[in-house]
Amino acid sequence: MDMSNVREDHTFSIADILDGQLETSDEIEIGRVADIEAEWREDGQLVLTNLITGPQALAGRVSSHLRPIFRFFLRDRFEQRIALKEVEQYGPTLRLRGKAAEYPVGQSEKWIADHILRWIPGSGYSRS
Amino acid sequence: MKKQWLSLALGVVTATGGFLDAGTIATSGEAGAKFGLGLIWAVVVATIAVILMVEMVGRFTAVSQKTYADAIRENFGFKFYLLPLSSELIAESLMLTAEIGGIAIALSLFTGISWHYLFPVAAFIVWLMAWRAPFDLIENGPAILGLLTLSFIAGIAVLGGPSPQLLTTLWHPQIQSGNLADYLYLVAAILGATISPYLLYFYSSGALEENWSAGSLLLNRVTAIVGMSFGSVGSMALVFLAAMVLQPLNMTSNTLGELGLAMAKPLGIVGSLLFAAVLFTTCLGAALEVVLGVSYNISQGFGWEWSEGKKPVEAARFNLVLTIFVIVAIIIGLLGIDPLQLALFASTIIALFLPISLSPFLILMNDPQYLGDKTNGRFTNIAVICILVIAFIVALVSLPLEIFTGGG
């Protein structure tokens, strides 16, 4: 695991990252880590690469049998990846370097505001 | 210092209002009408439990700066989180329907229109306040009006207080042979109505909305004890009133509106109006706490933006959840189940689910990672476990009996 962006006095287990809150640099909570992706490098090292969010990953956490069923219906449409190097600060809350608008995770927030809430009076919607 | 005392006063008022709702009014009224003062002990046990719980959840959030839902997901993982989440969704959708029904019945006492027609109006009021009202209005508005509950005590005084004969039912409940299932069902319902888990999600989120810190601990403890005790007095006063007015009339299977007779007898039309006002404000306050409690729970569990301080589009998923939850309650309301019976049933279901919804809480309260040196003492742990076990067993025994014998 590439630990160059983690402060030295902290060691982390996977459990600390899994289910952690994802917060962007503009202090928006965009979701939680559903799964972690790793790859075997040629030198035999296992390197964590991406944080994953989405219903398929969550279904897989509940039961491995559910994962293919969810994949068949959702076809990876709602699964999102965030590269681990985007994480600026580790802990129960994972602080990301970029702003909320830069990440595919949490875009449902905007979709719901644009397509549903805007029709309800008092939602505070303004075209921007 | 002055500000501290102001916020203490508000906190106490809030806790008082938060104690009473459709569930506690239904269970207190039924308890008094059916068993005299024979269930006051259950109200006392429930009060101790809710004081402990509210103190604990305030302490948890003030020290850890985490809400209960945050901590369940982060500490126990997604798969486990689904358990308290689904038990909460089942129980609280029934409870929300009952609270909205309570508001509708209160409106019907004022206007004379059937509560069935007023149900959508009541649901709309709840949704509108959850949608746009700021947090402090939601917390303090209904709560201050909830002080009207103290008029129940005036009702008891006007009737000249309980007779010595009635007082003996305090320690010697009269349970006829066929009534044991009913008695146990009410014990479970009283515990479930008072120790509602939505309070945990609502209170811990509220503590963050109001920027509590480790310096708020004394305030937290005083608020929990004084506020919940006050609320409990209102609840017990209704048991007394129902025992003094409804039991002699043999009104043992009531509706929420008929419970108002307990206030109409001592205070006439004013009493009826006071009862309707109490029903309206406490059910409105509780309906908002339920809607927000569930929406906070889901949003925090999935890591979405949440806050009553933001415009709906700035916390879109949170506001969509609360809108859908009110719609679900309207759909359940279309079944036309009497709100009092629904409140009793929902309270008993909550009692049954208490071990699921509260055991993770008890584990977290003993975790120094979250609480440092402010973890639970042994007395608190043992007391909470005992109450959870009692609530669960009584609910487990009485629910099937109540369902198969048709209740009442």
Give your account of this protein's structure.
The complex is a heterodimer of chains A (128) and B (408). With 128 residues, chain A is an alpha+beta fold. Helices cover 23% and strands 25% of the residues of chain A. Chain A has 4 helices and 7 strands, in the order αββββααβββα. Chain A has helices at 14-17, 55-62, 66-74, 107-115, and strands at 21-23, 29-32, 35-40, 46-53, 80-83, 87-89, 93-96. Chain A has a 4-stranded mixed sheet, with no helix packed on it. In chain A, strands 3-4-5 form a 3-stranded antiparallel sheet. In chain A, a hairpin with a 5-residue loop joins strand 3 and strand 4 (46-53). In chain A, 26% of the residues are buried. With 408 residues, chain B is mainly α. Helices cover 78% and strands 0% of the residues of chain B. In chain B, helix 1 (2-19) runs parallel beside helix 11 (217-245) and helix 9 packs across helix 17. The A-B interface holds A 18-22, 28-32, 34, 58, 61-62, 92, 106, 108-110, 112-113, 116-118, 120, 122-125 and B 66, 70, 73-74, 77-79, 82, 131-132, 301-306, 311-314, 316-317, 319-320, 323.
Question: Which tags fit this structure?
Answer:
heterodimer; A: 128 residues; four-stranded mixed beta sheet; three-stranded antiparallel beta sheet; 25% strand; globular; B: 408 residues
Topology, element by element:
The complex is a heterodimer of chains A (128) and B (408).
Chain A: H1 14-17, E1 21-23, E2 29-32, E3 35-40, E4 46-53, H2 55-62, H3 66-74, E5 80-83, E6 87-89, E7 93-96, H4 107-115
Parallel strand pairs in A: 1-7
Antiparallel strand pairs in A: 1-2, 3-4, 4-5, 6-7
Chain B: H1 2-19, H2 22-35, H3 40-64, H4 68-111, H5 115-132, H6 135-145, H7 151-158, H8 164-167, H9 180-194, H10 198-209, H11 217-245, H12 256-259, H13 261-302, H14 316-333, H15 339-364, H16 368-371, H17 378-404
* Helix residue percentage of chain B: over 70%
Distance between the termini of chain B: 52 Å
Low-confidence stretches of chain A: 1-9
The largest sheet of chain A is:
4 strands, mixed
The gross shape of chain A turns out to be: globular
User: Shape of chain B, please?
Assistant: globular
Number of helices of chain A: 4
Question: Using only CA atoms, what is the Rg of chain B?
Answer: 20 Å
Order of neighbouring strands in the sheet with most strands of chain A: 2-1-7-6
Q: Structural class, from helix and strand content of chain A?
A: alpha+beta
Question: Would you list the SSEs of chain A in sequence order as H and E?
Answer: HEEEEHHEEEH
**Rg on CA atoms of chain A, Å:** 17 Å
Strand content of chain A: 25-35%
Specify which chain pair forms the largest interface. Answer: A-B, 29 and 25 residues
Low-confidence segments of chain B: none
SSE order of chain B, as H and E? HHHHHHHHHHHHHHHHH
Secondary structure tally: strands of chain B: 0
Please give the alpha-carbon distance between the first and last residues of chain A: 40 Å
Average pLDDT figure of chain A: 85
